[in-house]
Amino acid sequence: MKALMPSFNYEKAAKAQEIMANLIDDVGLSDRKYEKILGLDASYLNDLSCSVAVLYNARKGKVIKVSSALLKNKVPYVPGFLGFREASAFLASAQEIDLSDVDLILVDGHGRFHPRLAGSAVQVGLVLGKPTVGVAKKPLKAEKIDERGYVWLKGRVVGKVLNEPKGAKRLYISVGNEISLEDAFEVVKLLRPGKGLPVPLNIADRLSRRLMEYALRRSEKGYIRRFGLRRKQAS
DNA sequence: GCGACAG
DNA sequence: ATCTTGTCGC
Question: Is the pLDDT of residue A99 over 70?
Fold first, then answer.
C-alpha cells in the first residue's frame, strides 16, 4: 500500500523532536506581563484543516484580531507526531498577526508533555520564537501525575493539571517555549473564567468549526474541486 | 497479537 | 479531530 506521505520519515521526525526538546527555554522572563494572548486551534474535515488564530487582549477582555487558514493536510495524524501535521496550519493562520504585538501564544495540544518532550506547542514556540503554552484536553502517556497535579516524565516535571474552576474538565498545561510551567499554569487559569477552554482557544475552537462548515457549504464554488473532497454518501 | 494513543 | 439521539441538569 502506498504511504500517505512517502517523504515523511518518522525516525527523522523523532530525531528532530529530540533536538527541539533541547532548545526549549522553560524559564522565560520573570517580570513578563501577559496581556495580548494569541490562541491557535484547528478543526478537520477529510483532508482539510481549518486553523484559526485569535488575538485577545486579556486586560480589556476583548478580541483584537482574528485570522484563519484553510489547508490540505500533508501528514496523517500519528500520536506523538501531531506537531508535524498541524503546526504548519497554526503558522499559516497566524501569518497575518503582527507577532511583535503578541505576548504569549496558547496552542491546542501538548508542549513538553510529550514522549520526546516536544509537542506541537514546542514546535510553534521554537519556530516563532515566542512564549508558548500547550493546552490539551487529554493526557498523553505519563509516568506519574502526583497529588499536586504535576505530570512526570523521564524523571522530571513536564506539565501540570488544571482543575479549576470547580467542576470544569481537566486541562493539561505544559511549557512550549520561553515561559516557566508556573507562569504558564497561572496564565491559563486566569484565562479560564468558565468550564470550557481558556478564552482565546475557546473562540478559536468555535470559529474553526464554523469556518470549516462554511467552506463545505460553498464547496460548489470550488473547494471540492480544489481539494478533491467528496460529499458523504447518502445512506 | 493487543492495547495505547494530543488533534 | 469527527461521526451522532436522547437525556440529565442549571
Answer: yes
CA distance A138 to A216: 28
User: Is residue A132 classed as helix, strand or coil in its secondary structure?
Assistant: strand
Of A232, A208, A219, nearest in space to A44 by CA:
A208
3-state secondary structure of A172: strand
Query: Residue A156 CA to C4 C1' — how many Å?
Result: 41
Q: Give the up-direction half-sphere exposure of residue A135: CA atoms within 13 A in the CB hemisphere.
A: 32
Residue A94's alpha-carbon distances to A68, A184, A200, A203, in angstroms, are: 7, 20, 13, 15
Q: Is the CB of A83 under 7 A from strand B?
A: yes
pLDDT at site A218 = 78
Per DSSP, the three-state class of A71 is strand
Give the residue with greater pLDDT, A106 vs A32.
A106
Q: CA of A44 vs C1' of C2, distance in Å?
A: 8
Shortest CA to C1' contact from A216: nucleotide: C2
CATH for A33-219 is: 3.30.2170.10
Which sequence spans correspond to the domains of chain A? 33-219
Q: pTM of the entire structure? A: 0.91
Q: Is A36 exposed, middle or buried (0-12, 13-18, 19+ CB in 10 A)?
A: buried
| Cβ A234 vs Cβ A227: under 8 Å | no
How far, in Å, is the CA of A23 from the C1' of nucleotide C10?
A: 47
